[in-house]
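[scheduler] slot 2 assigned
[scheduler] job type: sequence-to-structure, two independent chains
[scheduler] chain ordering preserved from manifest
[runner] begin chain α
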Amino acid sequence: MRPIPVTFGMTLAAAVMLAPSATLAQQADDALALVAVAETATSEAEAVDPTAPRAAADVTLEEFQWIARPVIVFADTPADPRFVEQMQLLADRPDPLLERDVVIIVDTDPSASSAIRTALRPRGFSLVVMQKDGSVGFRRPSPRDVREIVRGIDNFSFRQEELRSGGQ
């Protein structure tokens, strides 16, 4: 099978036309390979959705240092009304959070003792907004709307520097 350059807008018919001298079986193999590449790219794009909350047990704060601002939502159970309210507030307005490189992390299992829970030691419900350098920007004991969160982020010295240097 000879290599065929792949673009995401390529149709199956176009893939077959790129290899006119190939046998029908080779053309079918090439087309199936293109479909597999497109499916992989689609699933990878979905897997890195920045607005999708991540479980604290699956990540560490260090992996976001200088890359993103973790917003961590802690609760003792996913049924906590404050947790439910906070997650709804975050989901309602994702764009301002994306503009500020926010990644949402949730931890609703105190017995699991995730590294993030151990480091930040929340009690009950807690909203913690981190800075890009890994330090705590602010903590809140009750749900906050996106407007208040982004105002707090915009007051971080690192965010001010980003704005001055023409970053996001």
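[runner] end chain α
[runner] begin chain β
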Amino acid sequence: MKVKYMFFIGVFGIENKQKEICEVNQVQCKNCEGISSGKLYKTFQCFHFFFIPIIKWNEEYYLKCNSCRNIFRISSEKGGNFEKGMGEELTYWDLEEVKNNYGSDATEDKIICQSCGASIDNKYKYCPYCGNKM
């Protein structure tokens, strides 16, 4: 008598994700101090099962200036409106500058990757998400 067993192998996990939302025009950059455009990104963590996202949390929105490549955090409310297609104007006051890599102190715990916008430990020489040199 032969007994056959069926094994179910599930693929699940938690990962940090980034999604490009849209291109934003006519933004006054706090770093360039000029009118520029930028890309709006959403970063979040999600639990996935068989590569299907089940739960999302820690959703944050960032604007990356196309001129100086500086990264700014914007409110979840404004970022959510852009994601839904109800984009409104971003003003100088909506941009919260994120400490950039160029000149971040060694005592800082986290830095933001200039390439992908991920928040990572300052001990890395390369971003673990996109491979960009820090």
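[runner] end chain β
[qc] chain β: Residues 116 and 130 are 7 Å apart (CA to CA).
[scheduler] slot 2 released
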